[in-house]
């Protein structure tokens, strides 16, 4: 019972917070674009790629992509590691 | 009122986050908890892409685009990154659940002893 | 798994895999790129695993080969990033050079595959990585799952 | 050398990353080659961090813009906001970098013998390198989204390492808990990033801090960031994952997971001081952090007194000692808006908190390693089934004594020095804080006396007659951390003045951090 | 343009409905199917928001791979 009340209260707190945020945030479809306009204007000259998203992924924010590739590598390594064969498996 | 309607994507994000939190807190089945995490990830992804939408803009790809009024490219790149991160964490969580099941025969948070403190 | 699924998988998988490769190669001019193409390709592999079982797929697609491919993709990617180090890490040093170096005019244009500098190469590297990584995850989990099923 | 200095920040991250991709291939050449490779790489990382530190103490904040025409050019020419990812390393970043690199090196050396009989070692070392990358990455980055990415690297590799000994159910459960907590925390960070991006169209920390208006959305983002990072740094009320994750973590990894926790804590300080600074209601936030700190201290130490599992006991002390850091820095935040109080004791409070972070990373790392050494030789972590190990494991016993005395704040060891700084500063804000902190310190001493008695003194148990000292590489790993602890104890003022105060000043100097990117400042 | 606005309202609502279904379904396989539907609708919404890159990724990863690993994990454990 206590658990249900706690869940309810947390949900209400978060709900109010997020709905307030959703209503007060600027109207849908009219973003400020100081950073992105630079990319739209310059990505073709600077990277030679027609796809601005690719230009961002591999050039402007390539370091993030490296991190992301690393995460996939870490996850694959971890999954293989978790299901590895163990020496003591026979006695398990 | 019309402003309220125009913000429906943002409201949907808020609702998705609440549903995800509800699933994560109320469910005792660990696989269900992971589904909650996946929904939370989807909500954040939707939020990011929604932030980048520009009324009347086209996809930020110059090949055969009609003009240069484009939606913002950065949030899309961020979302791509976050989608792949999401699948990586999901896979690891599910693998761990499979191992927990192998040890205890349970995927229930309370029956399989200490999980969830 | 039923025969229909297998037939569908046989017909569909080559198309999915080809489409994945196409998406990887054209990432810098059309929607797509290493991640998307890799994901599409890996979903083809996942379809094979679902249709034919992990055991059969494992006969011609070993986990350690995938690990090598993944390491290779990662090394190629970070190597390309290191190659720009003369200027800055991740500097796009191929723009303006003969390899992928054409610079398109500003504004809408039909697109040219020889553009993008290091981006197409990085797309290939990441594509390799994502294909190998996701396939390895699905394959290993499926193998463990079928083994777990036998235990009971 | 100049080129090395200019690129040192990115190389310190990229080289272990490159090595991590290479480790599966190097592993084919044999275990010994791989071990040497990993240790050499981590030693080189330590060297790079020191090169970077020398540069920063001489020339101020180090900027590195990835992929730009010139690394020091954070903002493109003829433009007003940063577009690319910028690494921005200041006194705090390099301070945490030194800690992380040292602990990683010690952990890797320690693991060589400790992991000898486990399978899957190639993957173990790969993940160990990735954990190092994650720790350094979140310290060095100046970009919010990049922070999220490296937080995830840290979480995944940390969770996988915690679960490494899959034959124990506790290990898998501990790893799973850590992963769930970290993923949700990281998603909260991402959500906060989205809130900033939506308002200002910026991702760079300095640029956001520059234009921050502290709107309702910024307040929500602040709440999300503080909750997420407090959770990841194991403060009350979200401390429950800490003991379950630390206890089963194998070999040299528990100090590293601990260093990762501290990295998250310092990121929280960075958010509070640099991203928000005086724009937020500092007294409220400061007191919230102080209260979280006091609760952490108290809950941690009382739970620790009841434990019989040696590593679990130490894990509860992780929570309790984390409270001191939160207390010190919280006092600093509480008086951030009052220049007089800040100069009188605020700066010292922050420095004390950060000094405790450093000390604690070394001596708690050492203690966790000695706990693992006992487990390695005895096969049990239960204190009631140990006894008389002081005779057979002299080195481990000595290392344990150093760590235990330091953590309890016994003079002249370094734990005393940092606690004294925290006591003095917090006394001027409110004497009650100091009294509680001292009480907790005494309880810590009591708790470690119990461990010492049951594990190392007393009659020798017959079943452990054959137990020998741990192998050389484990002694070496513990020795590095013990050496660092003793060094700080011998020269506390030298260490405080050369690296701790610059870190505290870097936190307090928000304008400097912003100015380095945006110019002017 | 009015149709687009209606779509922008309907698709997010359907996504939320799918999320609620995931919460309600006791049977895990049904919940996974609801989750896959959520991913597909999300991909559609990304396409509507002029993000074809993300839409391909979400369809490939969210709908296909995530569903596959969920099904694998459920097959290895209990269904409810």
In short:
The complex is a heteropentamer of chains A (92), B (117), C (152), D (521) and E (80). Chain C is 68% helix and 0% strand.
Tell me what the structure shows:
The complex is a heteropentamer of chains A (92), B (117), C (152), D (521) and E (80). By secondary structure, chain A is mostly helical. Chain A has four helices and no strands. Chain A has one domain. The longest helix of chain A has 23 residues. In chain A, 55% of the residues are buried. The mean pLDDT of chain A is 82. Chain C is mainly alpha-helical and 152 residues long. Chain C has five helices and no strands. The longest helix of chain E is centred in the C-terminal third of the chain and has 25 residues. In chain E, helix 1 runs antiparallel to helix 2 and helix 2 packs antiparallel against helix 3. Chain E is flat, with a radius of gyration of 14 Å. The chains are: A mainly alpha (92), B mainly alpha (117), C mainly alpha (152), D mainly alpha (521), E mainly alpha (80). The interface between B and E is large, with 49 and 40 residues.
| Distance between the amino and carboxyl termini of chain B | 44 Å
For the record, the CATH architecture of chain B stands as Orthogonal Bundle
Strand count, sense and barrel status of the largest sheet of chain B are: none
Give me the number of helical elements of chain B.
Answer: 4
Q: Quick one: overall form of chain D? A: globular
Q: Find the biggest chain interface.
A: A-D, 41 and 50 residues
Total beta strand runs of chain D = 2
Give unreliable regions of chain D as ranges.
none
Shape of chain B: elongated
List keywords for this structure.
heteropentamer, C: 152 residues, mainly alpha, 5 helices, 68% helix, 0% strand, E: 80 residues, 3 helices, flat
Explain the layout of strands and helices.
The complex is a heteropentamer of chains A (92), B (117), C (152), D (521) and E (80).
Chain B lengths: L1 H5 L1 H19 L3 H22 L21 H32 L13
Helix pairs in contact in B: 2-3, 3-4
Chain C lengths: L2 H23 L8 H19 L1 H7 L2 H21 L35 H33 L1
Chain E lengths: L1 H23 L3 H21 L3 H25 L4
Helix pairs in contact in E: 1-2, 2-3
């Amino acid at each position: 019972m206590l658990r249900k009340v706690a869940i309810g209260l947390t949900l209400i707190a978060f709900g109010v917070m997020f709905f307030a945020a959703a209503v007060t945030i600027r109207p849908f479809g009219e973003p400020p674009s100081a950073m992105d306009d630079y990319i739209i204007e310059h990505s073709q000259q600077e990277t030679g790629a027609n796809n601005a998203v690719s230009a961002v992924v591999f050039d402007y924010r390539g370091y993030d992509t490296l991190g992301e590739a690393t995460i996939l590598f870490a996850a694959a390594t971890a999954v293989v590691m978790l299901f590895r064969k163990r020496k003591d498996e026979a006695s398990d | 009122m019309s402003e309220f309607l125009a913000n429906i994507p943002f409201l949907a994000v808020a609702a998705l986050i609440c549903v995800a939190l509800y699933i994560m807190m109320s469910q005792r089945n660990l696989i269900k908890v992971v589904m909650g995490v996946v929904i939370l990830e989807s909500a954040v992804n939707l939020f990011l892409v929604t932030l980048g939408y520009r009324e009347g803009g086209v996809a930020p790809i110059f090949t055969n685009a009609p003009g240069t009024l484009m939606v913002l490219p950065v949030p899309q790149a961020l979302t791509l990154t976050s989608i792949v991160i999401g699948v990586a964490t999901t896979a690891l969580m599910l693998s761990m659940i499979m191992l927990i099941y192998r040890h205890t025969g349970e995927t229930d948070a309370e029956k399989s002893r200490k999980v969830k403190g | 798994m039923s025969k229909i699924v297998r037939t569908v998988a046989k017909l569909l998988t080559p198309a999915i895999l080809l489409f994945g490769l196409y998406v990887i190669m054209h990432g810098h001019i059309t929607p797509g790129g290493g991640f998307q193409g890799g994901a599409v390709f890996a979903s083809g592999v996942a379809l094979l695993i679902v249709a034919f079982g992990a055991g059969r797929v494992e006969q011609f697609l070993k986990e350690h080969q995938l690990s090598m491919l993944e390491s290779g993709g990662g090394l190629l990617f970070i190597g390309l990033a290191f190659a720009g180090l003369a200027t800055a890490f991740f500097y796009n040093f191929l723009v303006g050079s003969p390899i992928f170096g054409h610079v398109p005019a500003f504004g809408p244009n039909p697109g040219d595959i020889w553009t993008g500098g290091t981006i197409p190469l990085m797309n290939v590297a990441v594509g390799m990585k994502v294909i190998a990584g996701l396939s390895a995850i699905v394959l290993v989990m499926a193998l463990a799952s079928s083994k777990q099923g036998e235990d009971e | 050398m100049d080129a090395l200095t200019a690129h040192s920040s990115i190389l310190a991250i990229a080289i272990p990353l490159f090595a991590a991709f290479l480790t599966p291939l190097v592993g084919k050449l044999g275990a010994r080659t791989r071990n040497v490779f990993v240790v050499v790489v981590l030693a080189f990382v330590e060297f790079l961090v020191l090169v970077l530190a020398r540069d920063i103490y001489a020339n101020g904040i180090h900027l590195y813009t990835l992929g730009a025409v010139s690394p020091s050019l954070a903002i493109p020419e003829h433009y007003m906001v940063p577009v690319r990812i910028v690494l921005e390393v200041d006194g705090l970043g390099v301070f945490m970098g030194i800690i992380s690199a040292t602990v990683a090196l010690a952990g890797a050396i320690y693991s060589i013998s400790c992991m000898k009989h486990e399978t899957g070692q190639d993957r173990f070392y790969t993940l160990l390198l990735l954990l190092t990358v994650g720790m350094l990455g979140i310290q060095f980055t100046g970009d919010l989204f990049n922070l999220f990415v490296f937080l995830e690297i840290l979480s995944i590799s940390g969770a996988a390492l915690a679960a490494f000994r899959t034959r124990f159910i506790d290990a898998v459960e501990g790893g799973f808990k850590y992963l769930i907590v970290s993923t949700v925390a990281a998603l909260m960070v991402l959500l906060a990033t989205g809130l900033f991006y939506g308002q200002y169209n910026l991702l760079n920390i300095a640029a956001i801090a520059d234009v921050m208006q502290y709107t309702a959305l910024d307040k929500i983002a602040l709440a999300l960031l503080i909750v997420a990072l407090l959770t990841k740094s194991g403060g009350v009320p979200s401390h429950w994952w800490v003991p379950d994750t630390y206890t089963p973590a194998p070999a040299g990894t528990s100090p590293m997971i601990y260093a990762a926790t501290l990295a998250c804590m310092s990121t929280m300080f960075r958010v509070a001081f640099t991203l928000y600074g005086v724009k937020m209601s500092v007294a409220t936030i400061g007191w919230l952090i102080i209260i979280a700190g006091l609760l952490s201290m108290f809950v941690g130490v009382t739970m620790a007194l009841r434990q019989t599992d040696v590593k679990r006991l130490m894990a509860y002390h992780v929570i309790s000692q984390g409270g001191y850091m939160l207390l010190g820095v919280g006092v600093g935040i509480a008086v951030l808006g009052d220049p007089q109080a800040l100069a009188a004791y605020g700066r010292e409070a922050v420095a004390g908190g950060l000094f405790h972070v450093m000390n604690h990373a070394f001596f708690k790392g050492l203690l966790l390693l000695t706990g693992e050494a006992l487990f390695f030789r005895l096969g049990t972590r239960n204190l009631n089934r140990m006894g008389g190990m002081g005779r057979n494991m002299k080195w481990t016993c000595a290392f344990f004594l150093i760590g235990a005395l330091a953590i309890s704040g016994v003079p002249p060891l370094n734990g005393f020095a940092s606690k004294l700084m925290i006591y003095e500063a917090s006394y001027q804000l409110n004497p009650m804080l100091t009294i509680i902190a001292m009480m907790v310190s005494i309880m810590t001493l009591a708790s470690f006396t119990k461990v010492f008695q049951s594990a190392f003194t007393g009659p020798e148990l017959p079943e452990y007659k054959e137990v020998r000292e741990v192998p050389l590489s484990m002694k070496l790993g513990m020795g590095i951390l013990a050496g660092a602890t003793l060094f700080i104890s011998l020269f506390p003022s030298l260490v405080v003045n050369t690296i701790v105060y610059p870190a505290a000043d870097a936190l307090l100097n928000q304008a400097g951090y912003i100015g380095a990117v945006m110019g002017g400042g | 343009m009015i149709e687009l606005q209606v779509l922008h309202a309907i698709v997010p609502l359907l996504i939320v409905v799918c999320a609620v279904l995931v919460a309600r379904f006791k049977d895990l396989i049904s919940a996974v199917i609801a989750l896959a539907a959520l991913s597909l609708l999300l991909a559609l919404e990304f396409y509507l928001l002029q993000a074809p890159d993300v839409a391909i990724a979400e369809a490939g990863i969210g709908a296909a791979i995530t569903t596959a690993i969920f099904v694998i994990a459920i097959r290895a454990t209990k269904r409810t």
